[in-house]
Write a structure and sequence with these properties.
The protein is mainly alpha-helical. Helices cover 41% and strands 8% of the residues. The longest helix is centred in the N-terminal third of the chain and has 28 residues. Bound molecules: heme C (2 copies).
């Protein structure tokens, strides 16, 4: 009797063990993407995949450099400029104050509580580049990852992540220091000035067939919140009117359900762009292929450098694309605080948006872009085609308007040509001859601010 009970317990135990093993293997079986499971187990595996993929994607978005420290460190030697001559680098070094003034952000959650308090009370020396190294060691500089020598004393390279341009912080500890806000466009970030600080820009100069001084001039022409993601394809640094060809950094939230992304239509969907930007702009080690750019007339730099068909010896990007995609699509557009717009006017503006002002013909609520092919030639929206034509498909993407309130700095449209939302509405009013009264225009603006 006793023996029977004993073996019963043992059997039950083995059963649990086996069950766990089967369950675990089913959960991980999604990696092979070809499991034959019963309905329940399959559904479990799908749910598990969703959770894991989200977590991985967030880590990639925030911290993955795709091996691009080889470019920003070994090639451009940006880490030397950050470190400064006193610490084996070059120049004055980049103090935290200088970094913040370049629009870089600090993730307060990565800082020990005592350090947070000291910063909030102004007790930390923000003028010392050594403090920047401490922040990098804590992995606290949003979008910048430091790689240190084995003794941990010197920066040996830096790499960048998606969060550099597409995240900011809520300033809860101090201006530029707070909790991460992933997906929000960093319109304070002066990418051009940061890159221009690198001691060696010969790689850009060679690709663009110019000298480093010219490269620096181009980089300094961008200004805060702007970046030129097409320069190393077409070599066009300036528009025909002489202004910089850089575009505004768009938000990376509110993308689910929408077909085309970025300002122009040829960059396809989110995952296309992730590969494009990770390999050809962030210079991660990976694969990028798009034969539409193999066109020496339109994309001479891409053809000369072969960037349209990049096949690194190692690929640290392709395997990250699925999880990065999951995370990207989960990033919601943030709702505006209630006190930032006039609700009564916004309600009337909504009626105008879908009615008299005809905005909803393109910005179809609640996506605020066309379900389907969301792109237009410049003449349809009353602007030139310069930026559209820097792209293989030659059209502007209907921007989804949710979360507009969170990226008003730098203006609107791809190049920020309209300083305010009222300027945008005035433009449409003239272009489409809408005949909106001043009151109606303001109502549409309040509605836009409420999205
Ligand atoms: C150096 C700044 C910078 C970095 C780093 C960067 N991006 Fe971007 N991103 C941009 C700019 C600029 C655009 C607009 C490009 C265009 O339309 O020509 C853009 C566009 C996008 C868009 C489309 C937004 C829209 O309006 O539809 C998404 C999504 C996006 N990026 C995600 C990412 C991800 C994911 C990464 C990391 C793999 C990344 N970006 C890295 C600057 C950056
Ligand atoms: C024919 C289609 C179309 C119509 C109609 C239209 N839009 Fe747009 N909208 C676009 C496109 C395309 C863009 C992107 C322009 C660019 O990239 O420079 C855009 C951009 C915008 C932006 C700038 C978004 C940003 O992130 O900078 C705002 C705001 C906007 N539209 C509001 C409106 C309002 C308000 C109306 C109605 C008065 C309207 N649109 C009517 C196609 C349209």
């Amino acid at each position: 009797m006793k023996r029977v009970r004993y073996s019963g317990v043992l059997l039950a135990f083995l059963g649990i063990l086996l069950g766990t093993a089967v369950y675990t293997s089913l959960l991980f079986a999604q990696d092979t993407a070809q499991v034959k499971l019963s309905g329940d187990a399959y559904e479990q595996a799908v749910r598990f995949n969703q959770r894991q993929s989200f977590e991985n994607g967030r880590r990639i978005f925030r911290f993955d450099t795709f091996g691009n420290e080889r470019f920003w460190g070994d090639t451009l030697k940006l880490h030397q400029a950050i470190q400064g001559a006193k610490l084996d680098g070059v120049g004055d070094g980049v103090s935290p104050r200088a970094a913040l003034s370049l629009g870089l952000k600090v993730d307060a959650d990565a800082l020990p509580r005592a350090l947070q308090n000291d910063i909030a009370r102004g007790r930390v020396n923000l003028d010392d580049p050594a403090t920047t190294l401490t922040l990098l060691k804590l992995n606290a500089v949003v979008g910048v990852k430091g790689f240190f020598t084995p003794d941990d004393n010197r920066l040996r390279a830096v790499g960048i992540t998606c969060a550099l341009c597409h995240a900011t912080v809520d300033d809860s500890v101090a201006p530029g220091i707070g909790k991460r806000l992933d997906g929000w466009a960093n319109r304070d970030l002066n990418v051009g000035a940061i890159v221009a600080a690198a001691p060696d820009l010969s790689v850009y100069a060679n690709a663009l067939q110019t000298d480093q001084a010219t490269v620096r001039k181009v980089l300094m022409s961008w200004g805060p919140g702007r970046y030129d993601a097409e320069l190393n394809f077409d070599g066009k640094a300036f528009r025909p009117d002489g202004k910089s060809a850089a575009t505004l950094i768009p938000p990376a939230y509110g993308k689910a359900g929408i077909n085309l992304h970025t300002w122009t239509s040829g960059h396809g969907n989110v995952t296309y762009w992730n590969a494009y930007v990770a390999v050809t702009q962030m210079h991660g080690q990976g694969t990028f292929f798009d034969p539409r750019y193999n066109d020496p007339q339109r994309f001479p730099v891409a053809v000369r450098t072969g960037i349209w068909n990049t096949r690194g010896p190692v690929d640290l990007v392709t395997s990250r694309l699925p999880d990065l995609h999951t995370y990207q699509l989960a990033l919601l557009a943030p709702k505006p605080p209630a006190n930032t717009y006039n609700a009564a006017m916004a309600t009337r503006g909504q009626a105008l948006f879908t009615g008299k002002a005809r905005c909803a013909t393109c910005h179809v609520p609640p996506l605020f872009a066309e379900p389907g092919w969301n792109a237009h030639r410049g003449e349809e929206i009353g602007v030139d085609n310069f930026q559209a034509d820097r792209d293989p498909e030659g059209a502007y993407v209907t921007q989804r308007l949710a979360g507009l309130w969170a990226h008003q700095r730098g203006g609107f449209y791809h190049d920020g040509r309209f300083a305010t939302l009222l300027d945008v509405v005035n433009h449409y009013d003239a272009h489409f001859q809408l005949g909106l009264s001043a009151q109606e225009k303001n109502e549409v603006v309040e509605y836009l601010k409420s999205l």
